[in-house]
Specification:
This protein is of the alpha+beta class. Helices cover 40% and strands 20% of the residues. The protein folds into four domains: 79 residues, no CATH class; 151 residues, no CATH class; 242 residues, Transposase Inhibitor Protein From Tn5, Chain A, domain 1, CATH 3.90.350; 77 residues, no CATH class. The strands form four sheets. The protein has an eight-stranded mixed β-sheet, sandwiched between helices.
């Protein structure tokens, strides 16, 4: 267990400086430090810089730390003038600095300070821009970055400044994570999601397929581009009615023309990379490959008769590579996941039973004569039979006085034959990527889905969007993407302190369902580490870091204050060690 600091003392460091005129000046720095022993090593940590305090105050602090009584009993020797949460913003700011995020955003200026603060705030305490403005002054983020007096117009101007630099920022991230040196597979993942808008006047707002299940609201679409590990690199905002293929066409153009990347392999789901998009991609750039999946009708065609896809392929293996003249120059990797097959069979049975339950009262009313006429009966059936999308498996017979519903077993059996089977298509040669690698690359789209969960709800709370102007919506989504970039790295670094699986298992087969490692299961079971400290969620750890405060101490008889950190817990110390940063007294040195 890490030993907590047990001694504080004042250190006086003398230095000399000779200016250009040859004059020599002497300086003395006075630092308040903790000293503790970590195993066989003596470690120091600077808690406060007392150099600007009057000598008598420094002398009083030093004497007090040595145990001398300086004031009569009954008088306050020291009081806390103010205490601000510090640890959470300090940790996220330290990670941002380690990743070079301030430099990535642009040259030093007030707009960059505000933009950086907006990104950090989105990680630590996602809220509306107005709430964030007031929150800055309640933490050390505002005073340390000099933004605690910012107005609403300043924030909006910073958003506009940041959005204007989006292409430059994303191009830098692409060079960092998608270029061949960092990404030898030359692979990128792309997927599309949506979030609803509050209000009705945003030019981007349209009605479309809501992935949030939010009916009756206009929405925006946004596509996220990541590296193979799911690290966010770029984001694009589209009108709310944009289809997946159209978004894919645009991101390919961005990757090729804006980022200057050649010979890339784009990975997207079957709704994203359609046959039409593949033909367009072939005409656009022959150096661009893809990995996607076939739709159900194409799979049925491959299974028909003596087609290349037969269930016997999976007797002793869960994946097999096949070919078909319908897909010239492409490799088809067929997979069967028995766990997925069982789940789909269970879900289909549940949905059929739920649909039959909805129809049962109507059948009884028709039998009792309370509903008559084929038109009236058909209208009533239409209101309920499609709720669970099971109409294709039910045979409905309607007369003026009767209603019968029976299952179409042939339809159910035909669909059941495909349960758990999916086929991945790609033109990437086997020499460059084996069948197992193709499956793994496609299944890595789960990382983009995970990023969407973090962006939309778990961490960053992108939705709903309250901005009306198009550039503000794009700026808001960009801030969330950059915050997701920060969060990705923080989650990786803090895995030992959270329930995150620090060492995921390498599956024997890429088709098999992912499983947590023994260490992750032990975390979930014990809920405490070997030293008795609780494991936390990512947000729980940020909240705990927020209890590390910076306190303004006022000594008796003087109006001056000294900033001093509260004593960190062992978890807070380890959180900073895991990101290779010392706990700073201020965010800016």
């Amino acid at each position: 267990m890490m030993v907590q600091p047990t001694a504080m003392h004042v250190v006086r460091i003398k230095s000399r400086h000779t200016d250009r005129q040859g004059r020599e000046r002497a300086y003395e720095s006075r630092l308040l430090r903790h000293t503790w022993r970590d195993g066989g090593t003596v470690r120091n940590e600077t808690l406060a810089n007392l150099s600007k305090m009057p000598d008598r105050i420094v002398d009083a602090v030093e004497a007090a730390l040595k145990g001398q009584v300086l004031v009569p009993a009954g008088e306050a020797a020291v009081s806390i003038a103010r205490s601000l949460p510090h640890g959470h913003v300090a940790a996220v700011h330290a990670m941002a600095a380690k990743l070079g995020l301030p430099r990535l955003l642009g040259p030093a200026c007030p707009q960059r300070d505000l933009a950086l603060a907006l990104v950090i705030s989105r990680v630590v305490a996602p809220a509306s821009k107005l709430s964030t403005l007031t929150w800055w002054a309640d933490t050390t983020l505002g005073p340390d970055l000099g933004i605690d007096g910012a107005a609403t117009d300043d924030v909006y101007a910073a958003m506009d400044w940041l959005q204007g630099r989006q292409e430059t920022i994303e191009a830098s991230l692409a060079r960092r994570h998608l270029a061949p040196a960092a990404n030898p597979a030359r692979m990128a993942l792309f997927d599309l999601s949506s979030s609803w808008l509050e209000g009705t006047h945003c030019p981007l707002g349209e009605r479309g397929h809501s992935r949030d299940g939010k009916k009756g609201k206009i929405q925006i679409e946004y596509g996220l581009l990541t590296d193979p590990q799911g690290r966010p690199v770029a984001v694009r905002v589209f009108e709310g009615s944009t289809a997946d293929p159209a978004a894919f066409t645009q991101i390919v153009t961005v990757v090729r023309d804006k980022f200057g990347l050649r010979r890339m392999v784009m990975v997207g789901d079957r709704g994203m990379i359609t046959s039409a998009r593949i033909e367009a991609l072939r005409g656009l750039d022959k150096d661009y490959g893809w990995i996607t999946a076939l739709r159900g009708p194409s799979i049925r065609k491959l299974m028909a008769g003596d087609g290349p896809l037969q269930l016997s392929l999976f007797d002793e293996q869960d994946l097999a590579e096949i070919s078909s003249p319908d897909f010239p120059g492409e490799r088809l990797v067929a997979c069967r996941n028995p766990v997925l097959a069982d789940e789909r069979a269970r879900k289909r049975e549940d949905m059929l039973a739920a649909t039959e339950k909805l129809l049962a009262p109507l059948i009884a009313r028709v039998a009792a004569g309370r509903v008559r006429g084929a038109d009236a009966i058909g209208l009533a059936v239409g209101k309920v039979i499609g709720k669970h999308k099971m109409a294709k498996h039910l045979a409905v017979t309607i007369t003026d006085t009767t209603l019968t519903v029976e299952r179409r077993q042939d339809s159910i059996d035909a669909e059941a034959a495909l349960d758990g089977i999916y086929i991945i298509r790609t033109p990437v040669p086997a020499a460059g990527l084996g069948a197992a690698g193709v499956v793994t690359a496609y299944k890595n789209l789960k990382y983009v889905e995970r990023d969407f969960r973090h962006i939309k709800s778990d961490d960053l709370d992108l939705r709903p969007v309250f901005h009306r102007l198009e550039k503000r919506v794009r700026g808001h989504v960009l801030i969330c993407m950059l915050a997701a970039y920060l969060t990705w790295h923080l989650r990786q670094a803090w895995a030992p302190l959270t329930y995150t699986d620090a060492e995921p298992l390498i599956q024997a087969s890429p088709v098999a369902p992912a499983q947590r490692s023994a260490a992750a299961q032990a975390k979930a079971s014990a809920q405490h580490d070997q030293d008795g400290r609780p494991y936390r969620s990512f947000r729980g750890l940020l909240a705990h870091l927020g209890t590390l405060t910076r306190n303004e101490l006022r000594f008796g008889g003087t109006p001056a204050t000294i900033p001093v950190l509260a004593e960190p817990t062992s978890e807070q110390r380890q959180a900073f060690e895991l990101i290779a940063a010392a706990i700073p007294l201020t965010l800016r040195k």
